[in-house]
C-alpha cells in the first residue's frame, strides 16, 4: 500500500480503507454517510406534518380545533418549500446528534428518549425559522404534536431496522474473556436471557491471543468480564479490535463504581461500559468543524485585527522573520506546517535539537516573552484552523521527534491524533508547561470521550482567563 508523504500507513484492519467500486450501490452510499433509514425517516417526518392537516379535514371543525389540529391556508408552493425546510432542519438536528451513526448491537441504550430530545430540538429550530420568516407551515398549536409523532415514527423505524439486521446477520457473535468463574457467570446470564440476545462463539482466560481468536471466530463483540484484564488489553489488542469494528465492553465490578461511571450499559442483566470508542463519530466531528468555522467567520474582525497588530509588534521588536513555521503531527499522524509568531532567537535549537518549551525558556527574546505568556504567539494557528489542519479546541500538536519519543514510552499516546489538534485544549487550561506529557494525555483523552459544544465553549472561556492571568 502506498501512502502520501507524512502519512502513516494504514493496515488491512483499518475500516477507513474501503474499496467502494466493489460494493453494491447501497454499500457505496452507506460508505458516504447515506443511510436507507434516512429515507424512512423522511417519510415519517412528512407524514407527521401532513397528518394534522388530514385530521382537520376528516373530523368536525370544533373537535379538530379543540385537539389542536389546526392548519394555515397557504399556497401549495409555500407548503412544498416550507416542508422542505422543515425536513432539512430535522435532518440537521438528527445527523449532528449522531442518530445515523452505526449502532452497536450489545449494550445499546433505549433510543426513544434520545429521539424525543432531538425531535424537540428540531422543532425549536422550526419555530425560530417560522418566527423569522413569518410563514407558519406548522401552526403553533401543532408544535407539540409533531415532535411526538416524529419520535414514535423514528423509534419504530429503528425497531424495524434492528429486526431486519438481526435476520440478515444473526445474533451478535460474542467472545467472553476473563477468569473461568466470571466467564461461567456471564455465560449463564446470556444463555438464560429470553430472545437469544447473543451467540457465544468462544472464551479465553486472557487477552494475549485475542485478535487471532476474534478473527478465527468472526466475533462481532468482545465482553471482558474480569475488569483486572483492562491493563493488559490497553492499548493493544483494544486498538486493533476497534479498527476492525469489533465492539468491546468491560464488565463493571463493585469497586469500579467508586470511579463515578455514568456510561454504564446493560447486557443480559450485567453492567458493562463500552471501551475504545474515544474518537468523535463522523457526524459529531463535522458538527464541531461547522461550529468552529461559524465562530471564525463571526469573530473575523477581532482576530484579524489582533493578528495584524501583534505581527507589527514582532516586526519592530525582533525583526524578520515575523512568522515561525514548524512541522507538527496532525490528525491520523499526518504532518503539517504550523504557523506561529516568532518569539525565540533565530537558530535557537542549534546544538540542542527538539526540546520541550519551559516557562522560563532562555531561548525566548526578552521583549517577546509576554507574547508567549499570553499565548498570543499562537494567533497564526488560526490559518491552520481555516485550512482544516487544526481545530480551535483539541490536543495541542507536537513535533514529530517528540511524538515518536512519547509514543515509545506512553501507552496509547497516538490516540490523541484521532481528531485534528487544537489551538487550545483541556490540557492547556488545566496543565502547565511543566506538566508531564502522560498527564496531559489524560486530559486529551478525557476531552475526546466527553466532547460537546458546551465543553468547547468552557475551554475557550478558560483559555481567555489563562491568557489574562499568564498562568503557565
Kindly list the characteristics that best describe this protein.
single chain; 472 residues; alpha/beta; Rossmann fold; 3 domains; six-stranded mixed beta sheet; two-stranded antiparallel ribbon; 49% helix; disordered N terminus
Q: How many domain modules?
A: 3
Quaternary organization = single chain
- Structural class category: alpha/beta
| Overall form | flat
Strand content: 5-15%
What's the end-to-end separation, in Å?
Answer: 44 Å
Number of helices: 18
Share of helix, binned: 40-55%
> What strand line-up does the widest sheet have?
2-1-3-4-6-5
Element order: H for helix, E for strand:
HHHHHHEHEHEHHEEEHHEEHHEHEHHH
Mean pLDDT: 82
Question: If you had to describe this structure to a student in words, what would you say it looks like?
Answer:
It is a single chain. With 472 residues, this protein is α/β, with parallel strands linked by helices. The protein has helices at 25-31, 36-58, 61-67, 76-96, 112-133, 145-169, 180-192, 210-217, 230-233, 238-243, 282-298, 300-318, 369-373, 381-386, 400-409, 426-430, 437-450, 453-469, and strands at residues 173-177, 199-204, 221-224, 247-251, 265-267, 270-275, 323-329, 335-341, 391-393, 422-424. It folds into 3 domains: 35-168, no CATH class; 171-275, NAD(P)-binding Rossmann-like Domain (Rossmann fold, 3-Layer(aba) Sandwich); 282-469, no CATH class. It is 49% helix and 10% strand. The chain has a 6-stranded mixed beta sheet, with helices on both faces.
